[in-house]
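User: Hey, my collaborator sent me this sequence without any context and asked if I could get a structure. I don't really work with proteins. Can you help?
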Amino acid sequence: MATETLTLGKALNTGLRRALENDPKVIIMGEDVGKLGGVFRITDGLQKDFGDDRVIDTPLAESGIIGTAVGLAIRGYRPVCEIQFDGFVYPAYDQIVSQVAKMHYRSRGKLSIPMVIRIPFGGGIGAVEHHSESPEAYFAHTAGLKVVSCSNPQDAYVMIQQAITSDDPIVFLEPKRRYWEKGQVDLDAPLSEAYPLHSARVVRPGTDVTVLAYGPMVRTCLEAATAAAEDGRELEVIDLRSLSPLDLTAAYESVKRTGRAIVVHEAPSNIGLGAELAARITEECFYSLESPVLRVTGFDIPYPAARVEEEFLPDLDRVLDAVDRTFGW
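Assistant: No problem. I've predicted the 3D structure and written it out in structure-token form, which is a compact way to encode the shape of the chain:
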């Protein structure tokens, strides 16, 4: 078994390399993905090894990138589009919602759009405006799109390959603040035996509170669980992994045991994923709940300047405060 210690970014790079090796129809395209290797170096070395007809440096035009990829997907290719930063995806929003999400339905199933839209998302890197957005709710709300987010190197390596082999269009959210964090990656595990792409996973068992998170907030919640254990409270942390479709089987089972649920995400709370999760858990687990489902989120403001972003982002203390509040009912 070839197990290596990789950063999340390197795991994505390795997964993309495997996808290029396994299918000649896979094409990577985006701004500076070729010679530079991407602004975060996720595509480093791929153009050199696979050529500039498969790893393509595009103009600075997100709508053009996605529109071109739609045509390629219709013709049988599997384009992987990199949106350089989360806040740059909005010029392509029309293409994603009006074309990518609708083509299969519009053609009555005759056309598939097997494409992946990679978006580094979230804050925590001290970036300027438009570089720290959390746009997941826009896409999870759009019928016809699937939305996933990895939180660790092993999932990054496997999930990017699973997304590329899917015949559905997938928005693939990468937690940019976690790109440099390391973990063990099994490079030999066959995709056919991998954990399903659209399934949630319990990443820390617990008995007292169910904590739901995805992407960059999974580690934050695991740290909170470690701290809470010192006070005798055992948090069960669930990594959602897939935001559309949502897999809440593990969440329902957990909440029916713990009686309490907290949802954590960086995006603002207003009409965010936390609201949908709270509604579904309340509908399914009403008679098991000992307190309302609580949300720990970013605030309902545009993402702030880098010097105060730590005041905006959910952190260990805010998660632990929610734990205290959920026991106060």
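In plain terms: The first helix runs from residue 8 to 22. You can pass these tokens on to your collaborator as they are.
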